[in-house]
Design brief:
By secondary structure, this protein is of the alpha/beta class. The protein has helices at residues 3-34, 91-102, 118-121, 193-208, 236-248, 267-273, 298-303, 307-314, 332-353, 366-372, 406-409, 411-417, 419-450, 455-463, 469-481, 483-492, and strands at 37-40, 47-50, 66-71, 78-82, 104-107, 109-113, 133-138, 141-146, 164-165, 172-173, 212-219, 228-231, 255-258, 278-285, 360-362, 389-392.
Length: 493
């Protein structure tokens, strides 16, 4: 084989290898972008809404995300539980799924957004060989979930500016926070993709008049605010009482910190400033995102065990206790349990300060999660009622909830019947004001000005044209009435 042929063969081989690697990488990106997480919702589900219901421009984009509604039908308060603000903190969305699969509501209504920053779920963490998925072992098999990014996917928002100025505070922040949902509140309609998502969540909170909103997060164990409630001043009493209860009872240590007024763009700040909701953020420890860890693997995500973190914990360099005994390696079930019980404790203290806003609900507790594991509370989609199985993804799906009853189907005829009574009351009211209104003003005003002007022009002009046009007057009246036919359908619509 000649040297030239060898070079050609080498180039062909390199090209084939490059195409194979590109195909593998492309498939990985595509799969993460379109993977659908499955959830078997509780029979307490009453409705599924979307962010695009509140900001229509998000429809059909990766900024749209479902909102699951669990309404007891009993008057009370309302609670919003948010996971996935930062999808590389997956215990937040998993806790939302476990809540959704097991919740029962006795009073009030609970809203759940499992993936607030859906765009960020469609991209894995770049660098350090982060895994794209993790699995939870169950009795029926493995449940698979995504490990997303912290920020909006560049496919949905690009390029980034060199600086980020928060709206409307004007505060200058890190440039990459332009794609960080928890730096873009209260958002704006004419802003970036991420700002529009933030605005939609704010609009949902305002429209539904949410009484208490809980945003779930995870943090490095070397981050000062880890294992902490961060609350707006309007919710500080609730957060402090919940913190003291959890810590004092020995359930688990939970600190409290007031939301700094100087930090803008955060949920615990802007939700409370730009709506009437009681805004609370929760942080649980996540060793997976610590910078000093060894291999970043799925096992690290699920167990939290790492040699380097153990050394740091022994030296007292962490802000929470860390060891591989007594669940202080922070495995997934511990973190999920802290979110669920931390939120429940806030609901328990809510009526002490706002009795009219009471929400009574149940879902798995911290002790149950630690004892049984996350898999014990996830249901098999293959054997569940198809009406309770949902795939969480960006595109709108058909609501598969319970069919409307016969009574609910009669709502429209009853609504149309309400139009008929309006015809009866208008007969009498219009007769009385018309007689008085026309008689009083026309007697005096017309006599004065018409005495001279009307005598001259009316004698000749009126006699000639009034013979035929008078017969055409009904036609003109008919033409004027034609638009009312269009008005009736629109009113009905």
């Amino acid at each position: 084989m000649t040297a030239s042929k060898k070079q050609v063969l080498l180039k062909v081989v390199c090209l084939v290898v490059a195409l194979v690697l590109a195909g593998i990488a492309g498939y990985s990106f595509y799969d993460q972008r379109h993977y659908k997480e499955t959830v078997v919702v509780s029979d307490a589900l009453t409705d599924v809404r979307w962010l695009s219901d509140y900001v229509p421009m998000l429809k059909g984009t990766y900024g749209d995300t479902p909102i699951f509604v669990f309404d007891s039908g009993v008057e009370g308060g309302s609670c919003l539980y948010v996971g996935g603000t930062h999808p590389y903190e997956p215990a937040t969305s998993l806790s939302a799924y476990i809540l959704m699969e097991n919740i029962q509501v006795e009073k009030g209504v609970v809203y759940v957004i499992p993936q607030a920053s859906f765009s960020a779920t469609t991209l894995g963490v770049q660098g350090n060989a982060y895994p794209s998925y993790y699995t939870v072992e169950t009795e029926w098999g493995e449940a698979k979930y995504k490990i997303g990014e912290r920020n909006t996917n560049p496919l949905d928002q690009w390029p980034d500016n060199f600086t980020y100025i928060n709206y409307p505070s004007g505060q200058s922040q890190a440039y990459n926070d332009l794609r960080n949902l928890n730096r873009c509140y209260p958002g704006r309609l004419d802003g970036t993709f991420t700002e529009r998502v933030a605005y939609a969540i704010m609009e949902f909170i305002r429209t539904e008049e949410i009484d208490i909103s809980i945003d779930c997060h995870e943090a490095s164990i070397m981050y000062p605010v880890v294992g902490t409630y961060v609350a707006h001043q309007n919710a500080e009493n609730i957060a402090m009482m919940a913190s003291m209860d959890l810590t004092g009872s020995g359930t688990f240590d939970m600190k409290y910190e007031a939301s700094p007024n100087s930090l803008k763009g955060f949920t615990h700040r802007e939700w409370g400033d730009y709506s009437d909701t009681l805004a609370i953020l929760m942080e649980t420890p996540e060793p997976f995102i610590d910078r000093i860890v060894g291999p970043i693997t799925e096992d690290l995500m699920m167990t939290g065990k790492d040699l380097f973190l153990s050394f740091a914990g022994d030296k007292g360099l962490t802000y929470v206790q860390y060891d591989e005994e007594n669940d202080y390696s922070w495995p997934m079930e511990v973190r999920v349990g802290r979110h669920l019980t931390g939120a429940m404790k806030c609901l328990e203290y809510l009526p002490q300060f706002y009795p009219e806003k009471e929400v009574i609900a149940t879902w798995p507790s911290y002790d149950e999660l630690v004892e049984q594991g996350c898999g014990a509370f996830l249901h098999d989609p293959s054997t569940a009622d198809p009406a309770q199985v949902y795939e969480v993804y960006c595109e709108r799906f058909e609501y598969k909830g319970k069919p409307a009853s016969a009574e609910e189907e009669t709502v429209e005829p009853e609504a149309s019947a309400e139009v008929e009574p309006s015809e009866e009351p208008t007969v009498e009211p219009t007769e009385e004001p018309v007689e008085e209104a026309t008689e009083a003003p026309t007697e005096e005003p017309t006599e004065a000005p018409t005495a001279e002007p009307t005598e001259a022009p009316t004698e000749k002009p009126t006699e000639a044209p009034t013979d035929e046009p008078a017969e055409e007057e009904p036609v003109e009246a008919q033409s004027e009435a034609e638009p009312t036919d269009d008005a009736e359908p629109t009113a009905a619509a």
